[in-house]
Amino acid sequence: MIPLSRLHRCLQGVTPSQIVTCDRAGIPNTTYLSQVHYVDERHVALSCQFFNKTRRNVEENPYACVNLLDALTCDTYQLDLKYVRSETSGALFDSMATRIEAIASQTGMKGVFRLLSADVYEVLDARKIDEMLVEPERDDSPPPSVLDPIARPRGELRGLHHLSQRVSRAVDLDTLLSSLLEGLQEAYGFEHSMLLLPDETGKRLFAVASRGYGESGVGAEVEMGDGILGTVARERRIVRIGDVHTDLRYGRAIRRSARDSGLTPSPEIPLPGLPDAQSQLALPLVAADRLVGVLALESRKPAGFDDWHEAFLGVVASQVAMAIDRMLERGEEPAHPSRASAQPASERVRAFTYYRNDDCMFVDGEYLIRNVPGKILWKILRAHVHEQRVDFSNRELRMDASLGMPELKDNLESRLILLRRRLEERCPDVRLVRAGRGLFRLEVDARVSLVEKDSP
Do residues 43 and 121 make contact, with C-beta atoms less than 8 angstroms apart? Predict the structure, then answer.
């Protein structure tokens, strides 16, 4: 019997698995599974969603057969199973349900496409099926690098040590976020990553730092509970998907079936990040039972993330969560903003338009930012234009009731980071530069025009 731990790639859902059952009369039934979950070396759990015939067969005859396919080597394995029990609550059920619910939300099938039970089976035998493929000609060349989803030049522990050092040396939130994503690429080879933080309402996540996405990553927003990232945030559970496209196609097929039956699914949520991502790993950042963010990683390779990535990055996520939570705490030094002469500006004019009804800011007719960061920028630009101010403090922003900052855990630092990076991308002539603890300076290399309107 092959140890189940050697079949980890087959259990990531990159390719659908088949289950065969028989009723008491011996009449077989074959269907596809969306998830075969590793429980331990002698048990797996199968997701029960719509398999009424399979469930009836198992109640009459507890034996089943499952075929697994390794998407990277095309090796096929067969599991001989015996039904043990069904779980509708608990850690196993919650872990499987979170993954399925994330896909359901991403395809607009929340509440329809859901886990009914986690059916636990004893594994009686696990063997490779040699007759499934024609034996290829002998090739003595080294195996392709795709067989190792992520290169490990530093080793697992050394990479973890390297990343932890970078995080612990960060002196401010901006440096912490940049060091984290850079360290993930250096230590583990993750080229595409994104970190999202909850906004002041706690109902939405916004991307405050990204790597590998160009301009499209920072500023992306996800509603809490929507899509893969929103589900991870709400449930505070890790979700790893070996083949994003396969899972989304499965969910969309159920969506079409539901629509044909007269149901009206909600709109599909666009997935921020790579348009051709094959695998995804998302981890909640939790400190003292509080969600402080979500770390999302993507890869263009199927099965791009392994069990050890999930375990090691879970340790990193805990460390980062505590660091973010600590840096978001208040305790800045008193600041005394000064007035200064307006900086020399070029003949270039940057036209800022603020829509007061929804706190949305445009620059030169293009969307820049909204909500609290939009109100902050409008306040700063008005002070600069009308009072010739260039120096500001976090404290004065917190004391300004018109900004609507919550009394506790206002996430001001993260909103300023987002504002700073959006300006770098969309309007580099206007910059917010750190000037000390709790202080920042406005630098302007163009003339600023301000217009305030109601929302169109």
Answer: yes
